[in-house]
Amino acid sequence: MKVIIIGTVASSFYGFRADLIRAMREKQYTVYAFTSEYAESDLKKIESLGAIPMTYELNRGGLNPLSDIVATYKLSKKIREIKPDLVFSYFSKPVIFGTIAAKLAKVPRIVGMLEGLGYTFTEQPEGLAKKTELIKKVQVLLYKFALPQLDKLIFLNPDDPKDLIDQYAINVRKVEVLGGIGLNLKEYPYHPIINIQQPINFLFIGRLLKEKGIHDFLNAAKIVKEKYPETQFTVLGAIDPHNLGALTQSELDELISSNIIDYPGHVDNVKDWIANCHVFVLPSYREGVPRSTQEAMAIGRAVISTDVPGCRETVEHGVNGFIVAKWSPEALAEKMIYFIEYPEQIEKMGCESYKIAQEKFDAEKVNQRLLNILGL
Fold it and tell me: Rounded to two decimals, what is the model's pTM?
């Protein structure tokens, strides 16, 4: 059995697909990993998983129809040479162009996975910008052309198929909801909080973008500090200077100097930072199923997140944390204050997070489900 997996960034293969590739190799399948953004060291890491790294051209961000057509044709030639039994693509552009290329190469089984619908489908408080609306229209048009060619289309949460397939009446043969790509739980061991001491530390992990809820987190921190000035707020994540909704360097510098947040910059030992916090906070505007929240839950942290697609899949309100209204620093601050005033709930809800992670986000269980969906 030959399987081609088409992604974009090489690091996503060994960061998020390693367990899946290992599971396929255990079944003696030959796995080809197609990447369009890579360094030589990345290709060696993919090789170490037992997959054969293959490179191809794809302009991940741009919308140049001619270059996309040429790239799709070249990709189909590479696929045809391999003669795979299955092509499995993930991320938006590989699902569109990888599917078309696989169809041109007459692959017997083609499956795609959309791990989230991205910023074009993310509601904004002031509405979508005109350019974003235009990109969304083009994207929907491409989906209408490509998705009917799939044998199966996988989503991570139940809201995404409603907002794409149902909303735009796209004809797809079969839709499956996976519910998160899962974690190797051995890498995120349970770390319960014993004898909670004030001050309470709230942790945010994510790119410092408006749609990740960074502004709401910071504004909530200011509200909380008025009442409980000792409370700690830690932010892990990089500034994205190319994104319009990104925090600016000067805004970040001002926050650091005003002692509202602790910002250690880029760190490699994220799990240690999670273990050292009390409550994990992700006020995102939309997700597939957020990986950072799954990691925090596996380690045993209570969660505050927003009532939006993807985030809803991680929190049972009042059990392992709270779901709050999107775009509302006041609602966020209210639940932060709850944990400060009832610290015994931090350990209790953190324990519930751990149980949910064991049940829903264990990569072994998720990969077995995914292999069944892929028909492997």
Answer: 0.94
